[in-house]
Design goal:
The chain is mainly alpha-helical and 120 residues long. The chain contains 4 helices and no strands. The chain starts with a helix and ends in a 15-residue tail after the last helix.
């Protein structure tokens, strides 16, 4: 009887682990799809408030470029962060979300800012 309970517990733990792994993979896949589809070049107009802008600002913040807390509004702080990112990553400093900028920003090759643009 004890062996049956032990097997059941192992099976339940194994199934739970598989569910957790599946949930993590789905979350990562959804973020990647959202990022790739939502942040197309030059698609973000100044003044836009959206989840896509929040994703962009969050990534800039991870790399220490955002001078303010990410809020989902494409404003002067977002433009400044993009320009800083472009400058420190040897891109033309336009403040626009062109293809080259987005590709580098969401890659492992993105150069973070040495000192944060704001105190976190």
């Amino acid at each position: 009887m004890k062996n049956v309970n032990t097997r059941k517990n192992l099976l339940l733990k194994s199934m739970l682990s598989m569910v957790i792994v599946a949930m993590v993979l789905m979350t990562v896949a959804n973020v990647a799809v959202l990022t790739a589809s939502a942040l197309s070049p030059d698609s973000i107009p100044y003044g836009e408030c959206s989840d896509e802008v929040w994703i962009l600002e969050r990534r800039l913040d991870e790399l220490n470029y955002m001078p303010t807390e990410p809020d989902g509004e494409f404003d002067e702080y977002t433009v400044r962060a993009i320009k800083d990112f472009q400058y420190l990553n040897n891109l033309e400093s336009t403040g626009r979300t062109d293809e080259e900028t987005l590709h580098l920003l969401f890659s492992d090759d993105a150069v973070p800012r040495e000192f944060p643009a704001r105190i976190k």
